């Protein structure tokens, strides 16, 4: 039997039935990074980009994406998120922005995909708004840092020092 949970008894892809699972408080923290040229970083960090406040737009895009994850990722459950928060850490020496996305709810399934989607879309939004200055920007890595709730309880990824 496969350990993949989105396979039914015939081995076909299907949405997991979470009806019998307990409702628990669940959260997830994910991160992504976007690296850019010194010129693009300078414009972004000084808020001097022609398209406006890049990080504010990226924050809204990440929140919207988390709320729409089930529309973007096949077989994801639609979730009533109770919190979505994005933080941006400017890293001048690397000309990069570290993006952290946090999602929370009380439900029957986790919010890892929502946090990963929020971080990814925020990075893509920064790329979209800055690509005229630097089309060679690089996004990644994007990864899950930690999750809480559900059958596994608290899980923290290797090298994750964020809380």
From TrEMBL:
Pathway recorded for this protein: Cofactor biosynthesis; molybdopterin biosynthesis
Record field: catalytic activity: (8S)-3',8-cyclo-7,8-dihydroguanosine 5'-triphosphate = cyclic pyranopterin phosphate + diphosphate
CDD domains linked: MoaC_PE
One example GO MF annotation: cyclic pyranopterin monophosphate synthase activity
Catalytic residue positions: 128
Domain of life: Bacteria
Keyword presence, Lyase: yes
The entry's keywords: Lyase, Molybdenum cofactor biosynthesis
SUPFAM superfamilies: Molybdenum cofactor biosynthesis protein C, MoaC
Molybdopterin cofactor biosynthesis C (MoaC) domain boundaries: 15-150
Record-listed substrate binding positions: 75-77, 113-114
Pfam families: MoaC
UniProt EC number: 4.6.1.17
Role description: Catalyzes the conversion of (8S)-3',8-cyclo-7,8-dihydroguanosine 5'-triphosphate to cyclic pyranopterin monophosphate (cPMP).
Subunit-structure text: Homohexamer; trimer of dimers.
Family the entry assigns: Belongs to the MoaC family.
Name the UniProt record assigns to this protein: Cyclic pyranopterin monophosphate synthase
Organism the protein comes from: Microbulbifer spongiae
């Amino acid at each position: 039997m496969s350990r993949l949970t989105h396979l039914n008894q015939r081995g076909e892809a299907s949405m997991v039935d979470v009806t019998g699972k307990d409702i628990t408080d669940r959260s997830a923290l994910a991160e992504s990074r976007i690296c850019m040229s010194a010129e693009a970083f300078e414009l972004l960090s000084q808020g001097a980009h022609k398209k406006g406040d890049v990080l504010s737009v990226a924050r809204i895009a990440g929140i919207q994406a988390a709320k729409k994850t089930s529309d973007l990722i096949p077989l994801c459950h639609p979730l009533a998120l109770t919190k979505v928060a994005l933080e941006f850490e400017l890293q001048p020496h690397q000309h990069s922005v570290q993006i952290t996305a946090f999602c929370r709810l009380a439900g029957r399934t986790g919010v890892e995909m929502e946090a990963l989607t929020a971080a990814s879309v925020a990075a893509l939004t920064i790329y979209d708004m800055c690509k005229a200055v630097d089309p060679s920007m690089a996004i990644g890595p994007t990864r899950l840092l930690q999750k809480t709730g559900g059958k596994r309880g608290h899980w923290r990824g290797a090298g994750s020092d964020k809380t």
